[in-house]
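Researcher: Batch entry, complex prediction.
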Amino acid sequence: MAENILHLERLTMQFGGVTAVNDLTMDVYKDEIVALIGPNGAGKTTVFNCITGVYEPTNGSVSFCGKTIVSNRPQGKMKKLYTGEYRGEDLKIISPTPDKITKLGIARTFQNIRLFKTMTVFENVLVAKHMRARQNFLSATFRLNFKEEQRMREESLALLEEQGLLQYKDEIASNLPYGLQRRLEISRALATEPKLLMLDEPAAGMNPQETQELADFIVQIKDKYNLTVLMIEHHMDLVMKISERIYVLDFGKLIAHGTPEEVQKNQRVIDAYLGVAEDA
Amino acid sequence: MNVMNMERNGLNNKSTFSAVSEFIAKNKIGFLLIIVLYSALFILEKMMPPSSMLFVVLKKGAIYALVAVSMNLLNGFTGLFSLGQAGFMLIGSYTYAIFTIPVEDRAAVYQYFDGGIIRFTVPVFIALIMAGVAAGIFAFFIGLPVLRLKSDYLAIATLGFAEIIRAIFQWNKLGPITNGSNLLKKFPSFSSVLFPFTVAGISIALIVLLINSSYGRAFKAIRDDEIAAEAMGINLAKHKLLSFVISSFFAGVGGALLAMYQTTVQASAFKAAMTYEILLIVVIGGVGSITGSVISSFLFIACSEWWLRFLDSETYIGSFKVPLLASGFRKVVFSVVIMVIVLFYNQGIMGTREFSSEGIARFFSRIASRNRKEGA
Amino acid sequence: MEFINKNLPYILAGISLGGQYALISIGYTMVYGILRLINFAHGDIFMFAGFAMVYLAASTPLYVSIPLVIIITVILGFLIERIAYKPLRSAPRMSVMISAIGVSYLLQNLAWYFTSGLAKQYPKIPWISGSITIGSATTPIVTIITPILTVLLVIILVMLIKYTKIGMAMRAVSKDFETSQIMGININSVISFTFIIGSFLAAISSILYFTSYSTVTPVAGAMPGLRAFVAAVFGGIGSIPGAVVGGLIIGMCENITKGLGWTTFSDAFTFALLIIILVAKPTGLFGEKTTEKV
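Model: Structure tokens for the complex:
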């Protein structure tokens, strides 16, 4: 099998007494497109937030390219509240901030688009280049980094051109139409030079035509930038069309995983989506 | 890594030079304006009596412009609502004063503390930088714990720190260094308006360069959306601290200039009210506009020191006593104006726009083209 | 017994001051709970009530001037909210806070203008200005009345919030602003009501406070206001019992630091306490934790 890119090991996220993600183990392999689906409130975005360091999971670990990047066990008050299986004290506590995770090569988009609203399209992409630039605030202030700056600008322009956003480069990001804002958010994520791209409902609010285009777009950038893609999505046609494997969550628990065909036939998945009829 | 970077750039002097000349060429009008401004100041000083109110406004306005811009860097560009500016100005002005009072005058200044314990002086220029560095160091240690706080909690915590700093500097036990709650005086000051203009001008130019650099973009990203900025690999703690320290550095330099302008320093003057005043200048100018802050500083000082002074004195026209005019009325008018701006013109004078040489050129070319059209 | 007799006046004074802070701090905590706004002008409303008393008592008998002071202060609080905060309801939080600072600046400057910056003597109020002797210790009556009145008012307020319709609306709004708006709660009247209660308590507190301090100045509200805010944070912002406990602790601490001869540091100490709480436990003693949704 291909190289393991992302591995979640028995990940649990508990907010007070509410378990949002419950003992989830999953894998994403290189060059795959994997979808994470489930009814509203199933804990999908919480999984994203645990992987990217926004939340500190209550228990379990996340590995990226074979290296453990996030790991935790119940501590303090959580010790009492934790309802899951206790895994002992051997688990090391690794809890990096989101920027560290991005630097490792995981980029993400957000369910409710989070662009830098007052900045231009160009600047939005340029900001993402800041992290990898070789400079400090003095060299930047005194323009000693001008070669670095020039490289960042050229790369950003090239990226915008590839994404068909070049003509909007000086527009204020929040003035773009919705579909382009989504596209800009993905471009901005690409600018961080990720290995793994995580998309949170990229097709939200799109019509079938736009969704269709988005599907092609995702496949296209995946090949072009050598990416592995993990996405949360509700549009089933999109999911079934481009993802190689699907994980299904319900109430924070993994209820099924497999190829699109397998998942489609799975009775538990059908029940979760349609609700179990009383007399069925 | 950065040292290497600089070395490599140093070797490439030719391209550095060409970049600089290109930069100058691009901002021709701007540079021209600066030269015109400084020559005008120079000539003004030769022609007008030095006691003219104009010079008071220019000197104090330049100092407040620097402090307001430094606050804008934090509040307007990084989105950190800090109210600690007066505290950092205090550190700057004390650092400057302590290290520049001539040795022979120390016995008189520190009369209750045996002439103090510091028995040397440093040149003015170095003392100005020390003032900034001292404020920056304090900011670093204050920033470490408080910058994790959000908006209004950050505001109240920084306000609190400014008050704590004020109390510490007035503490009698530190008298040999700070002269306790007594005045510091007899340190070198300036007489020409060109001095504050040069120091403040260079400082503001540096802030502008920073804001237009990659770091400035990162600051703005944090202001727009912290979570997205973090997801783009921007280390929030590091960048917030950087902005806080740099802002405080320049507030410290501004404090030192203020000390020079006033010729005396006393910790009790650096109250929260001073921070509020600077905040209001920033708001009037437009949160997120450097030129706005500069313009509004001069306007603010001109109004409070000069143009609106008449509001404070009872006036008779013939035997008719002009109503309302009395001590304190100026500040009432002021606060009403500020409330009107906050409520109805919350963009301030400039909003987030900047007054640039390109903008001026564009403005004139637009007028020219309109005239041409009308002529045709 | 000797120790208690010697220190009783200090302890009582601390409790009394704490009670006065508690009454102010309820205004902060309720406004913050609903609008997420530090009402910087609250301390100046308190100061305004002090001056209103000075001027009214000079021309009217106390049984008229006291209710009048309370009514005027309540109207002022109501108007400030309507004029300076309501138009900014959808503006960024920073703008509202700047507006609050502006109002505070305006009130202080107005007070300065009308009084020429001079301290004014606060009128003597017969029932609370005198002294009383307990055991061998003599203490002003106000130090006994304040805690009793504070507890009484807080009980009434808690009942109001728990059992009346407007109280329920207030709780709903502070839990979730948008949803309660959708559910048909009149946000504006709830907010106005909050400011009215806050100003009412500030007026009561000002009568007690200035009776014990005897003079009013234009900046007299600034520090008590900030201390009361610290008390609100200490107790956990949004929580009324928290504000009371916080007020008592801050009041006691202030009297202790002053008693030890650290007067220069009494404000610094208050702020140091604030910063420690904010950094170590931002939710205070009784506050609730909120998480931002991503």
